[in-house]
Amino acid sequence: PELSKVKIDVYSINGEYSSTIIDKYYQPGKYTLPWNAKSLSSGVYLIKMESEGFIETQKVMLLK
Length: 64
Fold this sequence. Notes:
- This protein has strands at residues 4-12, 17-26, 43-51, 54-62.
- Helices cover 0% and strands 58% of the residues.
- The protein has a four-stranded antiparallel beta sheet with strand order 2-1-3-4, with no helix packed on it.
- The model has no long low-confidence stretch (mean pLDDT 95).
- The radius of gyration is 13 Å and the shape is elongated.
- By secondary structure, it is an all-beta fold.
């Protein structure tokens, strides 16, 4: 519930780093961020969000 740095990274299903979606400070709230996946092929990816004291990873499927 305070200003904190948020970093969202994309990894392949094998755990290899692909790209960073965002890496900056945000006030508390809900946000929608675009993900430009033009250079990636269809498949399963891991999206990892890190903030101060918080880490969550979700599996997503990219279809083109």
